[in-house]
Amino acid sequence: MKYMMFVCTDTEPETDDSLVPDVDVWVTENDKAGRRIEGSELVSPAAATTVRVRGGELLLSDGPFAETKEVIVGYDLLECADLDEAIEVARAHPMAWRGRIELRPFA
Known about the structure:
Elements: E1 2-8, H1 23-32, E2 36-41, E3 49-54, E4 57-62, E5 72-79, H2 83-91, H3 95-98, E6 100-105
Antiparallel strand pairs: 1-5, 1-6, 2-5, 3-4
């Protein structure tokens, strides 16, 4: 089953960096096991363009639409047997410690 793993910042990260796993190890292990299909870090939300259509008119704005302190900073596309396996993969990602991870199955 495919899961989109949104990698997000958080206002209350783990403060003990000695507990945080290494991202390169996480990527290597999950690539080798075939659980990580692809993934990437994203540039700053300041580089975003928000696209909306209202009343047939195209509306563009710079930056993220929502004002928030928690933002998506990357993603990984996972292939896991089930949600339990996806949770185990996500809990080992450094941003589960420094930020937060959101898992969503594909429809």
